[in-house]
Amino acid sequence: MNLKIAVLPGDGIGPEVTLQAKKALYAIGVVYDHEFVFEDALMGAVAIDKTGNPLPEQTLNLCLNTDAVLFGAIGDPKYDNNPDAKVRPEQGLLKLRKELGLFANIRPIKPYKSLLDSSPLKREIIEGADFTIFRELTGGVYFGEKKLNDAGTIASDLCEYSEEEITRITHLAFKAAQNRRKKVTMVDKANVLETSRLWRKVVKNVSESYPDVALDFLFVDNAAMQIILNPKQFDVILTENLFGDILSDEASVITGSIGLLASASLGNKKALFEPIHGSYPQAKGKNIANPIASVLSAAMLLEHFGLHKEAKKVYEAVEKAIEYNVVTIDLKADSKFGTNEVGDFISNVI
Amino acid sequence: MNLKIAVLPGDGIGPEVTLQAKKALYAIGVVYDHEFVFEDALMGAVAIDKTGNPLPEQTLNLCLNTDAVLFGAIGDPKYDNNPDAKVRPEQGLLKLRKELGLFANIRPIKPYKSLLDSSPLKREIIEGADFTIFRELTGGVYFGEKKLNDAGTIASDLCEYSEEEITRITHLAFKAAQNRRKKVTMVDKANVLETSRLWRKVVKNVSESYPDVALDFLFVDNAAMQIILNPKQFDVILTENLFGDILSDEASVITGSIGLLASASLGNKKALFEPIHGSYPQAKGKNIANPIASVLSAAMLLEHFGLHKEAKKVYEAVEKAIEYNVVTIDLKADSKFGTNEVGDFISNVI
Ligand SMILES: CC(C)[C@H](C(=O)O)[C@@H](O)C(=O)O
Ligand SMILES: CC(C)[C@H](C(=O)O)[C@@H](O)C(=O)O
């Protein structure tokens, strides 16, 4: 197979972890005789520094004309702590999600057997947990109108959802559930929010086309608690953009490290793959960031193109790294291996 | 001291747990020679059933003319699963918060020594954790304009904040921190939301009047993770309404049961005290609900009126109940004690 892949390393640890994902894909290409052509482009704070724009035209065009996008991380403290900044790195990512129509962000959560003791949660709580979060990615409060009055004393963000936006991701979530344990849990705040009530209504309607899948509802406050109390109760969690952002970072504790979690962002045409962790600026350039989430994003990319054998190979290589303790310090405090060494190990095993 | 207390038992388990709080307050009154006069009133689904209004005029007037409000719980599944209901129980609570000007909801999180093994989190993670969440309670997306178009296909909720709303709770949070470990963590989503950027700016300004208190910032997704990874890092968490709702339910896992967590809602004049748990309709009338959160709300009420000795007595009685295993099944699966027995034990110890 020939694939043209746009690579957006982004900010902080983005470049160093993305490099390991590229190495893994390169190794897969050699072993299975595929041609993966990578083209790097700027996005985020680095793009602002060089071009003034967090998503330069050129980057967007590249992404629109490739088969898939591999993305690293975004964000820089110099913008986070400057409420007056007019241009921010995150705008690049949000715009890219919107322009590529990536309405569904899919985040699988499943602890590795050999890491069951690395979680802050007790082993008996997490052993056997296996769920996937379907987070809506191009709507809600992320994209609604933002206002600040002239005096700078009143601000607002609009959270908006349409039936159509809810319907399309709901179908994806139910289809995924059909291939899993056949349960969808919709998370919302329908006792307070109008948008949540619309979600509830639409999801209920769509669910009627999937009589083999059970549907239940949880308020987001309760869900944030249940994910920790009893993560095994979940199969597919379906939720809106902001709740999905919060719950998936929270759920990362089940696996022991956010450095292990990958995600796929899908739409009608394009697909983007990224670790769920952020740019972790304190670790930048120190060769300590965990590259596994990025490598697993590459595996999700392979799966997306039907390369299941190849994806499995990557998963196995990652499992081997974990089993042999070739991991970064987030997983083993006294580890001697860095980002590069873990990446090398994985691509060598492939 | 003479105190007139409005009691709003509300829905589900509300009445049975609130009864135990009243018993504890009554016992305190006898021992310390205070006169607490209780007056019950309707709010929530029960109020809708009887009057059509989740917060009847009479209830609101009572609350406006008492020294404090003791509240149980609100919510009923028959409304949760009916997106078309025009009147909902929660509107009663939200209206009451607004009318009483209860802009700060304060939720202390601290595990009991003898319950350190009841949490899904490992003992070493939670031992020593001790923080308080200051949740803004009368602004944000809870109170912004809600819209649904005529076709019922597009919904929106507006999240709005003003400098003034942010300033007043920020002062409370910093004052609390001065009497604690002198650290405030502001939780927001300033990389995406305009309201969060206003929060960040205002909180930074206010913090300059408290040079002895350290201030840091966390994005809400990261905070949801950090609360589980390392809860000991927090002293005072300051956040907006919806994030506070999610994070405080999540943080309840640190204590082993949400049935242990109380909260105080304060404003310029009035004060309301309530457990953070919900109406838990499945347990209603079964004498299995944990009354401790409600009893602890009563203790927070005593503290609010400067009755520190008395509050301490309640805390000690609760600790004794926990120590002697006189607890409900959420804390000890094979417990023989119910809501009433735990309440009796506590008021007898007092
Ligand atoms: C960087 C930020 C805008 C982003 C988000 O909130 O979506 C990130 O947290 C994520 O989850 O991908
Ligand atoms: C019942 C509901 C409206 C309420 C809220 O979201 O504020 C509850 O969850 C709480 O935390 O007090």
TrEMBL record, chains A, B:
Catalyzed reactions: (2R,3S)-3-isopropylmalate + NAD(+) = 4-methyl-2-oxopentanoate + CO2 + NADH
Gene Ontology annotations for the cellular component aspect, listed alphabetically: cytosol
Cofactor note text: Binds 1 Mg(2+) or Mn(2+) ion per subunit.
Pfam families (UniProt xref): Iso_dh
Domain Isopropylmalate dehydrogenase-like: 4-346
Chain positions of site Important for catalysis: Y142, K189
Sample GO molecular function, one term: magnesium ion binding
Cofactors: Mn(2+); Mg(2+)
Principal cellular location given in the protein's record: cytoplasm
E.C. no: 1.1.1.85
Pathway assigned to this chain's UniProt record: Amino-acid biosynthesis; L-leucine biosynthesis; L-leucine from 3-methyl-2-oxobutanoate: step 3/4
GO process annotations (BP): L-leucine biosynthetic process
Keywords tagged on the record: Amino-acid biosynthesis, Branched-chain amino acid biosynthesis, Cytoplasm, Leucine biosynthesis, Magnesium, Manganese, Metal-binding, NAD, Oxidoreductase
Residues binding substrate, per UniProt: R97, R107, R135, D221
Binding-site positions, Mg(2+): D221, D245, D249
Keyword Ribosomal protein attached: no
Subcellular location: Cytoplasm
Protein function: Catalyzes the oxidation of 3-carboxy-2-hydroxy-4-methylpentanoate (3-isopropylmalate) to 3-carboxy-4-methyl-2-oxopentanoate. The product decarboxylates to 4-methyl-2 oxopentanoate.
Family: Belongs to the isocitrate and isopropylmalate dehydrogenases family. LeuB type 1 subfamily.
Subunit organization: Homodimer.
Protein name: 3-isopropylmalate dehydrogenase
Originating species: Flavobacterium gawalongense
Gene: leuB
